[in-house]
C-alpha cells in the first residue's frame, strides 16, 4: 500500500517582525526577502523531487488567498484550505488534515511553515523522506534541527533513548529556555530545535486527536464523510471543535507516538531582520545589503533599500538594521531586532496604523 | 557725519554637511533646518531693528540668486552682489565692499555668514552695535564668541591687553587647534571663537587692502568710480585682483587695526547634523525630531523625516543621526556627523551623483 505524500504549507501568519517590508496584506512569506523570489515560492520549490507542486496545499485565511495565489499559481500550486478565521495552528492543521484525508484517506502529510529558509534543500528532502518512513509506523514525526548555538528563541525537542529506524522517540518538548538552560541542552546533547515541521499520516493525526479530544472527534471526522453540499458547514464546525492553541500544545506534547528525525540542512526560521545575516551573503564588511546602498566604514549591518529610485547611505555605522521602503524607514540595532514589535505596537496605538 | 549701517550676507556656500537635506541647488542656508523658516531668513530677521531688510545685500554665485530670491524677496531683501565664480571669501567680500561703497562711500558694513544660528538676536544686535562704534575708529572689528567648550572645529581669536571702548585689539588669529590646545585656550582665557562675522567701514577695508596689496588696489578701487557702462568689466577685474583665499588669511591676520568685541548671544555655526542637538528643542529622551517620527527607547538622536507621507521609525537606537528625505536616507553616528562628507565623496565618485 503506497500512501501519497502531500504537503500542507502553513501560510496564515501575518507576522510583523519584518516591518516595514512586511505588512498586513503582504506578510513575510510573500516577500522576496532573501533571494529574488518570495520565500513561499522557495518553500514549494525545495519540496520538488519529493512532492510536486500539484500535491502542495496552502492553508491561510481568506484575505491571503489572492496575494498568495498571485505568487504560487505560476509555479503550479492551486489548492487552498481556507481558515474561517485566525485560530492558532492546531485548528488550521486539523482542518487541513481532515480536508486532505477526505480525498486521500491514506495520505502521508508534511506540515511546514511557509517562511523558513533551508540552505540545503536536498538534505531537507532526504530528511522528510526518512520522516515519512517513520510516519508509516504510526508516529507523528517532528524534524529536529541540530542546534549550533544556545538559542533562546526556539522550543526544543528532547529525544529519548529509544532509537527508531530513523531518529528516535521523543522524550519531551520544552519551551523556549533561558540562556543557561539552552547552553546546558547544547552541552548535554540529544536536544533539537523544534522547527514546527512534522510528518504524519492523516490517519495517525486524526486518531491521536480522537484519543486526546474524544468529545470533539466526531465534529472533526465529519469532514471526511459529509456530502459535498454539507461540507462548508462541516468544515466550520470542525475548525471550531479544535482548541485554539498551537499544535505542539494541543496534540504533540501528549501524543502517544512522537518521533524526532534529526535534520542538518542549513535551516533557519529567519525570525527577524538580524537573522538575514545568517542566511544571506555578506560583503567584505560583514554587511547584508539589498538595493541601492552606499556604505562607508560600515560593518555588521543589514541595509535594505527597497526603493529603486532612492538611495540609502550609511557612514561609520556598526551593528544596525536599516530598512527603507516606500512609505517607511526603520532603524534599530542588530542585537535588538525583536524591538520591531514595539514599533508596530506604537503604530497600532496611534493614528499611524495605516503604515502597518 | 552719520554713516549708514549695511549688511552683507555671505550666501555663496553650497555645503554638503547637511546632505541629504542640503543639495547643490538647495544649500543649507535655504533650508528650514531649525525652525519653520529658512536659516537665511532668520539671519536677515535677526538684524531687523539695527539693519532693515532693504539695507541687506546678499553675495552669492549666479546659480543661487534665484533660489535665494525666492526665499528673501517676500521679506524685502532684493540686493545681490553676484560672484562671477566661486573664489573663496576674500574676493567675495572685497567685491561686496567696493560695490556697496560705490553708492554708500561712508557706509559701515557687517559681513556675516548666511547659515548660522543665534539664540539671542537682541544680544547679537547689541554686539553689532558696539562693534560698529569701534569700527568708526578705523578698526576691522571681529565678533568673538565666548567659548563654552574646548572646540576643535573653529579658529580662535586672541585678544591683546589693549582694551578699546568695547572689546580689545586683537593679538592674533589662530587656526583650528587640537583638543589639548583648545583646552589650554579655555583655561587661559582671552580667546574667542572666530565666527567669521565682522564689522568695518568700507573705507577701512579698502585702505587695508591697498596697504597689503598695493599692486591690486587700483583694480579694486576702480569699481568705486567707473561709469555704469564699464561697471561689469570693472567688477570682474576687481574680483580677480583679490587673492583667492579666505578673508582671515588675506586681510585680517596682517591688518593694522583689528579689534574683537566679545559676543554672548547663543551663537552656533550649525556646522553638521549633530549640532542641531545644541540649537533645537530636545524631547524627554534627548532626541531632536522633525516630521512623522516614531521612536521607542531611543535616546540622544537626531531624527529628521522630511517626507509628510512617510514614517521614520527607530527602536533602541542611541546617539545616531537618521535623515529621511525624498530620494535618500542617511544614517550615521551623532559623534561622527562629519562623515557625511565621505558619503558625498562616495556619491561623487559613482554614477550616483544625481543624489548630490
Provide a descriptive summary of the structure in words:
The first copy, chain A, is α/β, with parallel strands linked by helices and 356 residues long. Chain A has two domains: 5-268, Spore Coat Polysaccharide Biosynthesis Protein SpsA, Chain A, CATH 3.90.550; 273-355, no CATH class. Chain A has eleven helices and 17 strands. The first copy, chain A, has helices at residues 39-45, 62-72, 89-103, 121-135, 179-188, 202-212, 214-225, 231-241, 247-250, 276-279, 340-348; strands at residues 5-10, 56-61, 79-83, 108-113, 117-118, 140-145, 156-163, 168-174, 191-201, 258-263, 267-268, 288-290, 293-296, 302-305, 311-315, 320-325, 328-333. Chain A has a five-stranded mixed beta barrel. In chain A, strands 12-14-16-17 form a four-stranded mixed β-sheet, with no helix packed on it. A two-stranded antiparallel ribbon of chain A has the order 5-11. In chain A, helix 2 (62-72) links the parallel strand 2 (56-61) and strand 3 (79-83). In chain A, helix 6 packs antiparallel against helix 7 (214-225) and helix 7 packs antiparallel against helix 8 (231-241). The first copy, chain A, is globular and about 60 Å long. Chain A starts with a strand and ends in an 8-residue tail after the last helix. The model of chain A has no long low-confidence stretch (mean pLDDT 95). The interface between A and B is large, with 36 and 36 residues.
Entry keywords:
homodimer; four-stranded mixed sheet; 31% helix; alpha/beta; Spore Coat Polysaccharide Biosynthesis Protein SpsA, Chain A
Amino acid at each position: 500500500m503506497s500512501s501519497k505524500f502531500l504537503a500542507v504549507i502553513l501560510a496564515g501568519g501575518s507576522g510583523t517582525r519584518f516591518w516595514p517590508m512586511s505588512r498586513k496584506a503582504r506578510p513575510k512569506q510573500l516577500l522576496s526577502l532573501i533571494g529574488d523570489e518570495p520565500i513561499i515560492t522557495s518553500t514549494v520549490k525545495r519540496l520538488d523531487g519529493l512532492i510536486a507542486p500539484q500535491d502542495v496545499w496552502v492553508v491561510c485565511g481568506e484575505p491571503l488567498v489572492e496575494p498568495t495565489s498571485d505568487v504560487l499559481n505560476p509555479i503550479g500550486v492551486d489548492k487552498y484550505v481556507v481558515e474561517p478565521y485566525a485560530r492558532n495552528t492546531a485548528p488550521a492543521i486539523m482542518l487541513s488534515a481532515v480536508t486532505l484525508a477526505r480525498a486521500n484517506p491514506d495520505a502521508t502529510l508534511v506540515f511546514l511553515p511557509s517562511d523558513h529558509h533551508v540552505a540545503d534543500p536536498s538534505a531537507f528532502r532526504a530528511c522528510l523522506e526518512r520522516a515519512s518512513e517513520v510516519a508509516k509506523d504510526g508516529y507523528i514525526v517532528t524534524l529536529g534541527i541540530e542546534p549550533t548555538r544556545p538559542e533562546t528563541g526556539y522550543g526544543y525537542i528532547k529525544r529519548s533513548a529509544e532509537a527508531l529506524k530513523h531518529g528516535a522517540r521523543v522524550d519531551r518538548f520544552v519551551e523556549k529556555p533561558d540562556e543557561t538552560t539552552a547552553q546546558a541542552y547544547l552541552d548535554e546533547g540529544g536536544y533539537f530545535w523544534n522547527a514546527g515541521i512534522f510528518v504524519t499520516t492523516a490517519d495517525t493525526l486524526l486518531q491521536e486527536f480522537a484519543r486526546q479530544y474524544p468529545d470533539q472527534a466526531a465534529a472533526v471526522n465529519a469532514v471526511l464523510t459529509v456530502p459535498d453540499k454539507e461540507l462548508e458547514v462541516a468544515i466550520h464546525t470542525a475548525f471550531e471543535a479544535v482548541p485554539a492553541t498551537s499544535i505542539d500544545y494541543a496534540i504533540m506534547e501528549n501524543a502517544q507516538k512522537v518521533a524526532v528525525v534529526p535534520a542538518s540542512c542549513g535551516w533557519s526560521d529567519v525570525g527577524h531582520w538580524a537573522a538575514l545575516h545568517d542566511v544571506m551573503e555578506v560583503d567584505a564588511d560583514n554587511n547584508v545589503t539589498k538595493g541601492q546602498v552606499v556604505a562607508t566604514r560600515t560593518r555588521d549591518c543589514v541595509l535594505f533599500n527597497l526603493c529603486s529610485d532612492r538611495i540609502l547611505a550609511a557612514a561609520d555605522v556598526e551593528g544596525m538594521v536599516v530598512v527603507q521602503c516606500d512609505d517607511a524607514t526603520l532603524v534599530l540595532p542588530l542585537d535588538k531586532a525583536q524591538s520591531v514589535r514595539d514599533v508596530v505596537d506604537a503604530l497600532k496605538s496611534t493614528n499611524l496604523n495605516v503604515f502597518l
